[in-house]
Amino acid sequence: MRIALFLTCLGDALHPEVGRATVTLLERLGHEVVFPTDQTCCGQMHINTGYQREALPLVRHHVATFEPYDVIVAPSGSCVGCVRHQHAMVARGAHDERLAERADAVAGRTYELSELLVDVLGVEDVGAYYPHRVTYHPTCHSLRMLRVADKPLRLLRHVRGMTLLELPESDQCCGFGGTFALKNADTSTAMLADKMRNVLSTGAEVATAGDASCLMHIGGGLSRLRSGTRTVHLAEILAST
Amino acid sequence: MSTFLGIPAPRGVGHLRGDRSFPDAARGALADSQLRRNLGHATRVIRGKRAAVVGELDDWEQLRLAGSALKAATMARLDEHLERLEQEVTARGGTVHWARDANEANAIVTRLVQETGASEVVKVKSMATQEIGLNEALEAAGIEAHETDLAELIVQLGGDLPSHILVPAIHRNRAEIREIFLREMPGVDPELTAEPRKLAMAARAHLRERFLRAKVAISGANFGVADTGTLLVVESEGNGRMCLTLPETLITVMGIEKVVPTWQDLEVFLQLLPRSSTGERMNPYTSAWTGVTPGDGPQAFHLVLLDNGRTAVLGDDLGRSALHCIKCSACLNVCPVYERTGGHAYGSVYPGPIGAVLSPQLTGVEDNASLPYASSLCGACFDACPVRIDIPSLLVKLRAQHVDEQRKRAVPSAEAIAMAAASWVMSSPRRFAAAEKGSRAGRLLGRRAGRIRTLPPPLSAWTASRDAPRPPSETFREWWARERGGDS
């Protein structure tokens, strides 16, 4: 299958390893990966901070960039959530019904990584080997906007050599929330503290999730604590052999 | 507090705003470790109970859909239902009063109490009277208002404000309650312990005397049935029922959104409400009263229908769903922000996620501009809401309204400039790639272990407690171009 990779702005600029892992994984499964180089950002930060007018050109650009592709994947639950639930809303807010329809069409072909693997490609065992103690944080937008449910866990349970540790209060937000972490930094830090306490209580070496942004938050906290536990994106674990 | 006299839909006044922004007001709560423990424990217990009783119903999602549909249909013809309610209440011997805002409602209730000659009233726990600041208004008129809900009593005696819609004293633990009782309750047993039963007995003795003495009671209403003019209060302790039946005069203050057209609608809401709020299959006391009955219960009944900004909210097609709220507080109990800050940080009597969307709408967003941002948009509130209010989408919409208001300023904020710049950069792949190259200068900041420990403002808020990732030596698109040769 020919799959277009939407890496997200954060993935491109700060976490290229997540993109490389996604490419490795999908190619290993026998698919062709293309990277539309015109891609930039889905506009989630603008939309969720209230700047819908500024988000409009980003929505338009995203739709135009990904329109030619039949299957699009992003290793980010929150960016897929934005594409699926907010792009058409922004277009309609600007009274651009044509753009809204095109956005809905692109959204219908856009999948979060675990959705693509389990629902579209029909694989749960991707042949990965990762000999570490790992705990999984289901990020809010994957869990509640996309309803990926246990798909990431089903993928992780097939990883050889790995010990999967259950994360207490896993469905609680880590406190990132985009600009929430800056606008309500103290509350965000309190939420992060509890998430880190739960992660560390598992004794895991690695905390994983399907969103580089949440991992940047949790990993930033764990690094500051010098806890010895690090964050690794789900795609990297699934790409390991 | 000032009254806005615009027509046709004036904004709400009363206890709907704080003096400080949410981040500022939250700071104290976040630093109070006892408060954090009290809140964390209480919300965790209620969450567990709710999940258990909701899990018992295999038609829970259908019930939520029904509740949502009933509310939407009712709001669409609210004027007709309210007129019907007035007609039926009047036909059964009650008197209906219409209050445009908090000030009018307080004036009406104060006059009604004064006309009875009473100098004190007993009160059933009520959000509407908290919203309008009725106790303070009565006090100013020389009338003492005694809260009879146990938690409201604790808050009142403690000279405190409620911190939760359903559990107003959620921020207090047993030891603190014992101290408040010993200090503030006349004639309390000095040997009082912090055992819940002993505390309840002390409150019971204190309240019983007031119930028997009171000539006037003031209540809120969970529902008003238009078809028969019946009002309902749903509660756990029975103290409300004492207020509703013993005094000679009963005054009910009800927000106009609380009307339901028929008794049949209650079948849905009386399943949704207790399971969502207290985690019970059914609440212990559901009291319903219709007008007055000679020789039985209060002989004078007044219903004050409160607008206070609600009509303005109704005018907004997405925003009006916030009025569907049945005040169960399930969204508070699942909200990670509420759990850590408690209710006082929200400023308004409506805390938590529903408060973050309801208060700014009732007052106008500029009067409560920090509240729509008091959420990480994790979505737990939407999942918990028994009438499916899409709180995250409302928050996003209110943020956009706030930003659009800010656009009218002569000088744009630093944030607005940054957002516009980011939009300009990100709407062009060429500019975005150039910006990525520029950000590589950030590598100089983070030589230690690939992490950045200090960023300049406003990003310094991030590095106060977290390291930031060091920009990689090669972006993905550079890697792709090197490995795969340019375009896809």
From TrEMBL, chain A:
<dbReference type="InterPro" id="IPR004017">
    <property type="entry name" value="Cys_rich_dom"/>
</dbReference>
<dbReference type="GO" id="GO:0005829">
    <property type="term" value="C:cytosol"/>
</dbReference>
<dbReference type="GO" id="GO:0016491">
    <property type="term" value="F:oxidoreductase activity"/>
</dbReference>
<protein>
    <submittedName>
        <fullName>L-lactate dehydrogenase complex protein LldE</fullName>
    </submittedName>
</protein>
<feature type="domain" description="Cysteine-rich">
    <location>
        <begin position="3"/>
        <end position="81"/>
    </location>
</feature>
<feature type="domain" description="Cysteine-rich">
    <location>
        <begin position="134"/>
        <end position="218"/>
    </location>
</feature>
<dbReference type="Pfam" id="PF02754">
    <property type="entry name" value="CCG"/>
</dbReference>
TrEMBL record, chain B:
<dbReference type="InterPro" id="IPR024185">
    <property type="entry name" value="FTHF_cligase-like_sf"/>
</dbReference>
<feature type="domain" description="LUD">
    <location>
        <begin position="82"/>
        <end position="291"/>
    </location>
</feature>
<keyword id="KW-0677">Repeat</keyword>
<keyword id="KW-0408">Iron</keyword>
<dbReference type="InterPro" id="IPR017900">
    <property type="entry name" value="4Fe4S_Fe_S_CS"/>
</dbReference>
<dbReference type="InterPro" id="IPR009051">
    <property type="entry name" value="Helical_ferredxn"/>
</dbReference>
<keyword id="KW-0004">4Fe-4S</keyword>
<keyword id="KW-0411">Iron-sulfur</keyword>
<dbReference type="Pfam" id="PF11870">
    <property type="entry name" value="LutB_C"/>
</dbReference>
<keyword id="KW-0249">Electron transport</keyword>
<feature type="domain" description="4Fe-4S ferredoxin-type">
    <location>
        <begin position="322"/>
        <end position="389"/>
    </location>
</feature>
<dbReference type="InterPro" id="IPR003741">
    <property type="entry name" value="LUD_dom"/>
</dbReference>
<dbReference type="InterPro" id="IPR004452">
    <property type="entry name" value="LutB/LldF"/>
</dbReference>
<dbReference type="Pfam" id="PF13183">
    <property type="entry name" value="Fer4_8"/>
</dbReference>
<dbReference type="GO" id="GO:0006089">
    <property type="term" value="P:lactate metabolic process"/>
</dbReference>
<dbReference type="InterPro" id="IPR024569">
    <property type="entry name" value="LutB_C"/>
</dbReference>
<feature type="compositionally biased region" description="Basic and acidic residues">
    <location>
        <begin position="475"/>
        <end position="488"/>
    </location>
</feature>
<dbReference type="GO" id="GO:0046872">
    <property type="term" value="F:metal ion binding"/>
</dbReference>
<dbReference type="InterPro" id="IPR017896">
    <property type="entry name" value="4Fe4S_Fe-S-bd"/>
</dbReference>
<dbReference type="GO" id="GO:0051539">
    <property type="term" value="F:4 iron, 4 sulfur cluster binding"/>
</dbReference>
<dbReference type="InterPro" id="IPR037171">
    <property type="entry name" value="NagB/RpiA_transferase-like"/>
</dbReference>
<keyword id="KW-0813">Transport</keyword>
